[in-house]
Structures are given as structure tokens and as C-alpha cells.
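Quick one, C-alpha cells below:
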């Protein structure tokens, strides 16, 4: 079936794009991943399961295997993005501390006398 072949090629391209995580621009990579996923979703919707041959079913099993790998790679990309966000927040708070060191008043060393 021609749709299965297109689906297989899109899935391979998706895997290739997801595996090249550290190379190039991340925003461009995410846009490409979204485009492949959208195209792949449309192809999956157009597959008629009643017309599948044994070869098509075998190809779909390969696609499933590749998809599991893509999911793992996209999880790594997500973790990397989360780590970058955390580092940016830490850097921002450190910059504020150096920029205005007296902004947060410290109450260390105060003594409150309770006797009357």
C-alpha cells in the first residue's frame, strides 16, 4: 500500500530529525518535528485496516518500533529544554542577587526581648 510506504518514510525522517537533537537550531528542529507529526497523523487516519496485507502489517510493526525510539528521543529533547529553563531561572535569580544585594532584607541577628 502506497500510504504505508509514505508513513514509513515520514517516520524515518521523524527519527532522523529527533536524533539530531544537539546539532543546529532547536526551534527549527521542533518545527520540523511538528510538521512530520502532523503529516504522519493525517497518513495514519487515512490507513484502511481492512485492506492491509501481511507485508503492510510487517511494515507497520517496524513503524511502531521506530515510533517508540522517537518517543524516547523526544523525551530527551523535553528534558534538555526543561534543564535549560531551570538554568535560565537560576541565572536570572543569581543576576538579581548581584545586581541588588540589599533587596532581600535578612533578619539574622535580631533579638526580640519578651520581658516587660
Amino acid at each position: 500500500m502506497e500510504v504505508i510506504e509514505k508513513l514509513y518514510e515520514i517516520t524515518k525522517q521523524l527519527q532522523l530529525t529527533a536524533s539530531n537533537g544537539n546539532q543546529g537550531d532547536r526551534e527549527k528542529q521542533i518545527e520540523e518535528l511538528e510538521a512530520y507529526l502532523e503529516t504522519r497523523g493525517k497518513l495514519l487516519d487515512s490507513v484502511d485496516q481492512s485492506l492491509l496485507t501481511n507485508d503492510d502489517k510487517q511494515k507497520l510493526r517496524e513503524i511502531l518500533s521506530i515510533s517508540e525510539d522517537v518517543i524516547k528521543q523526544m523525551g530527551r529533547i523535553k528534558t534538555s529544554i526543561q534543564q535549560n529553563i531551570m538554568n535560565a531561572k537560576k541565572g536570572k535569580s543569581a543576576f538579581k542577587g548581584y545586581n541588588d544585594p540589599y533587596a532581600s532584607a535578612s533578619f539574622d541577628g535580631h533579638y526580640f526581648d519578651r520581658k516587660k
